[in-house]
Amino acid sequence: MLTLHTKIPSADIIAAQLVLPYELREKCRLRATLDTGEDVAVFTVRGTVLRDGDLLTGEDKRVVKVVAAPEPTYKITCADAHTLLRCAFHLGNRHTQAQVGDGFLRIRADAVLKEMLAGLGATVMEETAAFEPESGAYGGGHSHHHDGNPLAPIPLRQKIHRPGDQK
Asked: Cα 60 vs. chain centroid, distance in angstroms?
């Protein structure tokens, strides 16, 4: 079985793709299947979050590209920036992971949050999309070679709301 353990900045040849939803891209230890059908083990440093486009390699030097799998999400838009900012505040207040886009927010599907956001005046549309949330404002950082947006790791002690969590 191929074992992937090292992120690299670039590669000339990509051997396969590893398509994963965000929930699995947060794990530092997992077993998965490449798009070629080959089983792989992923062992990354604790706290590592795999992002769409990341490149991984292992002992045999083959390179695998991480691809964000489409998953059930809500795209949140508002009539004005103030309302969108209020929605972002209330999501953050609940430690909800959110992707910040140009004029929209995206969260994983959660009926309770959908109702709250609609109550704040947002338009909440169900959408199957790759989920790439902001990862927090603490510590070092992570930057994509293709988008230039700095992302920082989430502290391990920080509680994150995930759909299906018990209150």
From this structure: 27
